[in-house]
Specification:
This protein has 241 residues and is mostly helical. Helices cover 79% and strands 0% of the residues.
Length: 241
């Protein structure tokens, strides 16, 4: 694979901001790259499973020698076996947490899609602030850092807050993204509540805050949101993992 190093860094969350959004743009536009990422993710899962099997095999060998060794070593052998079992339980728990994290990551990638900035640009709003309009143009070009700088010039504009939050998501800065969406939700009466709550739930999913993700998804699923069906499906996936 030509992109092996970048794929490994992407899966480990080690790409810096610039490389991350460039990689994600390539991921959206290059089906072959998407297949390579999926293959690498599957390989990681298989390696983890192989590690667990190897440990279990070694423990079985220890257990098979237990009776013979006890005649010479006595109690310390039983302690060693107990310690080995504790190690297995620890590794198993770690593998489970890793698999859950991968599952959450897969769900995030399945349900996350970039909100188009064309809505704002083509809204016909003649009072659209110049900085917001320029920010949306940079956003559409995938230059999220420049877009954020311009959105910052319109701190009271909730549309700017929405696209600023999504820009932060594209840059992998999910805590900052969550803050932007929370500001929109605190207003409680605007056109962007649905989008803000949906992307906030996905931000929580990405960062492993599953309880808050489910809480917001439940609100969406119980309302007439355009995300209603997707929210319910995602809840089901999280509960059945």
């Amino acid at each position: 694979m030509e992109n092996l190093e970048k794929i490994e860094k992407y899966l480990k969350g080690e790409l810096d901001d610039d490389d991350l959004w460039e990689f994600k743009k390539s991921l959206h536009n290059d089906p072959q790259l998407a297949l390579e990422v999926e293959a690498m993710r599957d390989m990681d899962v298989l390696q983890s499973q192989s590690l667990k099997i190897d440990v279990m095999d070694k423990l079985q060998a220890i257990h098979a020698r237990k009776n013979r060794a006890q005649r010479f070593l006595g109690l310390p052998v039983r302690n060693a076996v107990a310690a080995a079992l504790l190690i297995l339980a620890t590794i198993g728990g770690g593998l489970l947490l890793t698999q859950q994290g991968r599952h959450n990551q897969q769900l995030f990638e399945q349900y996350y899609s970039l909100e188009s900035g064309a809505f704002g640009l083509r809204s016909g709003n003649t009072t659209l602030e110049k900085s917001l309009e320029q920010g949306l143009q940079f956003y559409e070009l995938g230059d999220y850092k420049s877009a954020i700088s311009l959105f910052d010039l319109s701190p009271d504009n909730l549309m700017a807050r929405l696209y600023k939050g999504i820009s932060y998501m594209e840059l992998g800065q999910f805590d900052k993204a969550s803050n932007e969406f929370s500001v929109i939700l605190s207003d409680n009466d605007n056109l962007f509540l649905d989008q803000a709550r949906w992307y906030l739930a996905l931000s929580y999913l990405k960062t492993g805050n599953i309880a808050d993700a489910k809480s917001h998804l439940a609100v969406i699923a119980s309302d007439r949101s355009v995300y209603k069906t997707r929210a319910q499906k995602l809840i089901n996936e999280l509960e059945n993992k």
